[in-house]
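Entry:
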Amino acid sequence: MLPESPPASPPVTGSLLAARFGKLLQFLITGLPAFALAIALNYTLVERWNVHSALAYAVVLVIQVVVNFLLLRRFVFKKSEASTTSALQDFLALLAGVSVVRLLDWGLYTLLVSVVGLPFLWVQLGNVALFSVVRFLYAERVLR
């Protein structure tokens, strides 16, 4: 006789997908102030202060991680009173994973701007679109 197979996972319902999509939209909208700051800062560093684009983007990414964490914790992934982790613990947990994503972001940006020669602001916009969903999925997992 064949062993029983484990029960199937419950099907993903339309309401669950809608809730996740809603949370993703909330994540993206909440990130707009940090995004606007990042574009302005990157432009200023590169065009006005003549900072190399790779270094400028690295600075921008660090600032963006901090600002996004503060906004996300306040507006998207609110902590319950029963939470056992501090803001610092949550920040360090988020930083650990997001740093890998941001390193990939920075590497692709540097390759496309410094080696291929694409315009730095266009590459920055493309990277935001490319890496946003990955950052959302990680933040959702860490900041619940």
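The chain has a mean pLDDT of 87.
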